[in-house]
Amino acid sequence: MNKKSLIIVESPTKSRTIKRYLGRDFEVIASGGHIVDLPEGRLGIDIENGFEPKFVQIPEKREIIKKLKEVARKFTKIYLASDPDREGEAIAWHIYNLVNGEGKEIYRVLFNEITRRGIEEGLKNPGQLDMNKVEAQKARRILDRLVGYLVSPILWKAYYKGLSAGRVQTVALRLIVEREAEIESFVPSFYWNIFGEFLIGGKIIRAKLVKLDGKKARFENEDEVKELLERLKETVFTIDELSEKEERLSPQPPFITSSLQLEANQQLRFGSAKTMQIAQRLYEGVELGSEGPTGLITYMRTDSPRIAPEAIASAKNFIVREFGPDYSFPRNFKSKNKTAQEAHEAIRPTFIDYTPEKVRPYLRDDEYKLYNLIWRRFVASQMSPAVLRVKRLTLKGDKALFEAVEKRVSFDGWLKVMPRKDVEEGEGIPNLKGDEEVRASSFESKKEQTKPPARFTEGSLVKELEAKGIGRPSTYAPIIQTLIARKYVERQKGSLRPTELGKEVAKLLVRFFPDIFEVHFTSRMEESLDRIENGDDKTIRVLTDFYTVFSEKLKRIESEKSEIVAETQPKSDETCEKCGSPMVVRWGRHGKYLACSAFPKCKNTRPLKSEEEKIDKLCPKCGSAMVVKYDRKGRRFIACSAYPKCSYSEPYPTPYACPVKDCGGILVEKYSKKGKKFYGCSRYPDCKFASWDEPSDKICPNCGARTTFTRALRGKVYHYCAVCNHKWRETENKGVAKPESETGDE
Fold first, then answer.
1. 158-163 long-range contacts, CB within 8 A, separation 24+
2. In this model, does residue 144 exceed pLDDT 80?
3. Entry pTM
4. CATH code, residues 138-186+454-563
């Protein structure tokens, strides 16, 4: 046997980083994640025998499994160092069963950061496998398999094969669909706010009417507003109050998984999956020149904001050295979420001295952006509160009370590393003495409209899932990926919008499984898994309780299959031209179509008439009408209606002219090799203009160009001109173009 020790990790990147620190006394190899799973094509769970899972080797991992066995034979001491969470514990358990043998010493080690300090600390304190964690992960996998394997075929029968139902995924879909229903049923109303401009101490101060007759000033009648404005013109105002006080603005805690995904989505426009992929690379190790691969952040799947004492001390030393003692304010944090597992630290930099600027040359652009966000958020969390001087002026006259507020930063504190442009506001209220009489130079009313609730973004959905106790840090990104992959949800200008199919699926599943896909039920199930992990509950009891309810629902559905099919595949007014049977409306991967009700005897299908949208253009080859069609990937184009006699087709045209001067072409929908839509000129290759962003008919206020483009950034929609590069956005209330420099946003 080899006297050296073997460490088995999940990823090759992590293995390279660890090898650099440990030298010749250790061999490090990677398993590539899971090596076994439940089988494909069958349930793989013996329900009658205590829900015993039948794990099998993953076919794609046969070579890795063979190598793991061969290498492990040479070592007596083996350390299992998969990721420090439930899933990592399950991976370690399966590897243990693979490599265990007579005379073997096998330990479980946890590396919360892939640094010399983190690795040495883990190896100093090796332990044994946590079988409670293994049981909790096994229970989750069984629950998800039961739901997915037994419910998904119902969707296949109702719609088409390949759809999936998921225990947590469907609840997330339900939240998105219900939010969309709120938006669709929302009826907007209008109201008015009133502002006045007052000449005070040689300055024009803009103030808002906050009270009238002692009540909150909010007006829903335009005639009432006009009458009040006339009345106010004759009013003499006096200074009712002028106060000044300090306000402290504290920093936010360092990131946890959900807040990182939310902030990366809002600030960087990263999807949840992209955020976690980049964070994984930063955790596993990045090549830092002569220093070699180094883990830059702690483990990124966590629901706890707590910080290790040594990290707090390190941050204090850095802040005092760089900014001075007044800026240091060491603090720790506790989770406000009752379901937080508190298993790991917050997401923070492993070395505070590795500033974003220092490591910038070694990082890809997206890695730098995310690391910069994580580093600054952590450092800010250990800095003093910002101090604001808040001056408040109230003006009184004829039962009307106007208010103006001015905020100025007197000590920047944590804003030193995380500047915010929304902190300071106001016109600069002068210092005044006595009851000075004031007249307004002008008044104006501002019409406002109530707004529906906002659609979920990837970040805000993750925040909602966490708040409701649905899923766990490792599941958020896969949930959203699955919803988009199944075409239940689509991204639209940075938001998540349910498709027609998504609405149909959610409606069907919630109808037949109201308890299983209910928010509180799913949250309680997560709590049950936590209790298994803590040793306070048994897997068999949790699974039995779940399956007792679940199996009853399945029996009911079995007796109603024909009704489900009739409901989801309604008859149309058309008959089959081949056999005369009624045609029914069915779902396919790319939308609805007509199919013969005599299937499988008759397999005739044809597009829905509504799907074959005509376009105002004739085929240049044969003169027939052109129609809108969709390819197998659901991408639209226009083609000759005489197909297959005429096979002419073109990209789908937009109503927007190409912005290139004197081009004469129009913008058409095109797709990259990876399937991403972009807009290009119809005169390609003579004109090579192209844009990923959606064109709009907003006229550029700078140069007058009639084709501009929209882009979602940090939750706001911007317009920009491809001719002069001017960029602006709509003000929320007036719909007037406002230059970017006036918005307060970068």
1. 158/508, 158/564, 158/565, 158/568, 158/569, 159/501, 159/504, 159/505, 159/568, 159/586, 159/587, 160/586, 160/587, 160/588, 160/589, 162/486, 162/589, 163/486, 163/505
2. yes
3. 0.78
4. 1.10.460.10
